[in-house]
Amino acid sequence: MRKISILGATGSIGTQTLDVIRKLDGELRLIGVTANTSVQKVIEIIKEFEPSYVGMMDHNSAEEIKKYCEEYNKNIEVFHGIEGLNKIASLNEIDIVVTSVVGMIGLEPTMKAIEAKKDIALANKETLVVAGEIVMKAAKENNVRILPVDSEHSAIFQSLRGNDISTLGKIILTASGGPFRGKTTEELKNIKVEDALKHPKWNMGRKISIDSATLMNKGLEVIEAHWLFGCDYDNIQVTVHPQSIVHSMVEYTDGSIIAQLGAADMRLPIQYALNYEKREKVIADTIDFYEISQLTFEKPDLDTFKALDLSFRAGRIGGLMPTILNGANEAAVELFLNEKIKFLQIAELIEKCMKVFSDEVEKELNLENIIDLDRRVKEYIAEKAVL
């Protein structure tokens, strides 16, 4: 039985991880969970899974959980704030940590988990985007496995298995195209929040849904893939595949391509990461190839969906530029969700920040500088929200 912690247990990936635990009854034991303010959801998790540790980012929410545990005689340690995240990421009892919190907040607890020699089931894109060099170096030094939970990176991981990494020629990341595939810049000028949240294939959180609509989600995955698999940006290609059946592909030096296919169900890569190196019983729908009419692939429109192009640029520049890209995106997406800016302004603000903060790029790449620059970029966005 593998013992796990889930950082962000009430979000999209967290709740699907809980379903994997249910389906694989007896194979996985939930030891620790964290959430932000979702008290009632955490109480339901406590009732069903009986974890030993709970962390709430919000202090008042942590106090509510403590009261519940006292009232019902639950022997659970409750923490709050970033210290709680760090604690539950590095518990002695656990084997693997599912990092499914959204945003920069996932970086510090991921590093704490690596230092505690815990394997990482990584669903927090920002960790590798802003600190890939630091994270992968620490993982190697601590003999920790970074097991990707994103469907695309899991597909690449599986397609590489059993082959010599030196024969990797090209990574082909597939993208659904999001809800606005095929639309022009003119058509995107007055997009509403509710329209941007309507992903055609995947059930995701609000921030990730907007990232998918702008194609920033794919851009962040490009940077992740660079660090996870040691692949040069010139050898990472993005193709739009609206059916979301081919989750990504690897082209080898001899021209052969290996792909991983499956249902559009995040429980598949979650299950693979949590049970690596073995495969477990099927927990999602399987594909009936007699029912598939076609699989199509398209070149992404980088002029309309500038966020993807900006991500390639930031990755190639390196240093602290991906921190600028990511911080600006987080802040701009939040403004759009709160209806303070228009959809196309997300990419415009990101590009502006990449220019304004360009002198910061070559500073030493360490956690202190990453966190500080992230803060300053977000403060700048807050001041310059109206272009």
Automatic annotation (TrEMBL):
Domain 1-deoxy-D-xylulose 5-phosphate reductoisomerase C-terminal: 146-229
Cofactor list: Mg(2+); Mn(2+)
The entry's keywords: Isomerase, Isoprene biosynthesis, Magnesium, Manganese, Metal-binding, NADP, Oxidoreductase
Matches recorded under SUPFAM superfamilies: 1-deoxy-D-xylulose-5-phosphate reductoisomerase, C-terminal domain (SSF69055), Glyceraldehyde-3-phosphate dehydrogenase-like, C-terminal domain (SSF55347), NAD(P)-binding Rossmann-fold domains (SSF51735)
Any one GO molecular function term: isomerase activity
Occurrences of domain DXP reductoisomerase C-terminal (ranges): 261-379
1-deoxy-D-xylulose 5-phosphate reductoisomerase N-terminal domain sequence ranges: 4-132
Protein name per Swiss-Prot or TrEMBL: 1-deoxy-D-xylulose 5-phosphate reductoisomerase
Taxonomic lineage from the root: Bacteria, Bacillati, Bacillota, Clostridia, Eubacteriales
